[in-house]
Write a structure and sequence with these properties.
The complex is a heterodimer. Chain A is mainly alpha-helical. Helices cover about 75% and strands about 0% of the residues of chain A. In chain A, helix 1 (about 1-45) packs across helix 3 (about 70-100). The longest helix of chain A is centred in the N-terminal third of the chain and has 43 residues, at about 1-45. The model of chain A is unreliable at about 45-60 (pLDDT under 50). The mean pLDDT of chain B is about 90. The chains are: A mainly alpha, B mainly alpha. At the A-B interface, helix 1, helix 3, helix 4, helix 5 and helix 7 of A face helix 1 and helix 2 of B.
């Protein structure tokens, strides 16, 4: 059984990772690079664009970072593929727990559930950020993001897979709860580094690209899971 | 009839037992990968994964 899960997640994750890397390179990375021009201008002017707990400028100089162009693109490819394989393992693990037969069409629905848990719900509280945008404390945002993703996934599972009304109600509650608690907020001040046009373009681009990615990942997971059944 | 029902029940239970351990292992491994690329606060990992983290709408900086 684990061989089937492993092969499915690896194949679906690798292909979807390459897909999202291509989409990122075309639609998203140019926006990040454009925002960094404002980020750098802001920090050299002494504005507090970055978080105070972020490394001091002197430390940042000595830390390793990929060079520009090809090297930077390579590390983004690595990040996209590894994250995609990670998401694939989460998805295929959930499909296995469910234990029903699956094909690529049903896989797409699983993918949409992943999109809801790992993009829509967290982004509803914490909008996708460009470099240089003002934001609350990093650890607090990460904790809220992860908690929201986990609660949304559990809530969706209860609503879709349970027939008892109180369990479905609990599922709705789990999805709503993080938004009642509220995401870590920061004070929005004028004179932030990144132009609003760039930020809104970025938000919509990540929405569309990530949505497509999850449908591709779900469809491929369903396809390979079905195909590797007899192997 | 009765034996048949029991056998079917047993088969379902065995099937579930075979599924749960690998499924949980897959969930843990997936979480480990996503936490590593998307959420580790190590500066080196952050710098390498920077563009990917922003593009995937993970919290960054």
């Amino acid at each position: 059984m684990f061989g089937r899960i492993f092969l499915t997640a690896l194949a679906a994750g690798l292909l979807s990772g390459i897909f999202i890397w291509g989409a990122h390179s075309i639609k998203i990375t140019p926006l990040i690079l454009a925002a960094e021009v404002y980020e750098d201008a802001g920090s050299s002017a002494g504005n507090q664009q970055e978080q105070p707990q972020q490394k001091a400028p002197a430390a940042a100089e000595s830390e390793w970072a990929p060079g520009g162009g090809f090297e930077r693109g390579f590390y983004t490819l690595l990040t996209d593929v590894l994250t995609s394989i990670g998401f694939a393992f989460l998805l295929v693990g959930a499909i296995t727990l469910r234990g029903r037969s699956i094909d690529w069409r049903r896989g797409v629905f699983w993918g949409v559930a992943g999109f809801a848990a790992f993009y829509v719900s967290p982004s509803f509280g914490l909008a996708p950020e460009l470099p240089g945008m003002q934001a609350a404390d990093l650890s607090a945002r990460q904790a809220w993001w992860l908690g929201t993703a986990a609660a949304t996934a559990a809530g969706l599972a209860l609503i879709a897979l349970q027939s008892r009304a109180w369990l479905r109600g609990l599922g709705v509650g789990l999805i709503v709860l993080p938004h009642v608690i509220g995401a870590p907020a920061h004070e929005i001040t004028t004179g932030g580094g990144v132009p609003a046009e760039l930020a809104s373009e970025f938000a919509i681009a990540t929405l569309v690209v990530t949505g497509l990615f999850w449908m591709v990942l779900g469809g491929l997971s369903g396809y390979f899971y079905n195909r590797f059944e007899r192997s | 009839m009765n034996t048949k029902t029991l056998l079917l029940k047993d088969r379902i239970a065995i099937d579930a037992a075979h599924r749960i351990a690998p499924a949980v292992l897959a969930l843990l491994f997936g979480a480990f990968l996503v936490l590593g690329t998307g959420f580790a606060q190590s500066t080196t990992i952050h710098n390498a994964a920077h563009d990917g983290r922003h593009a995937l709408a993970f919290p960054c900086h």
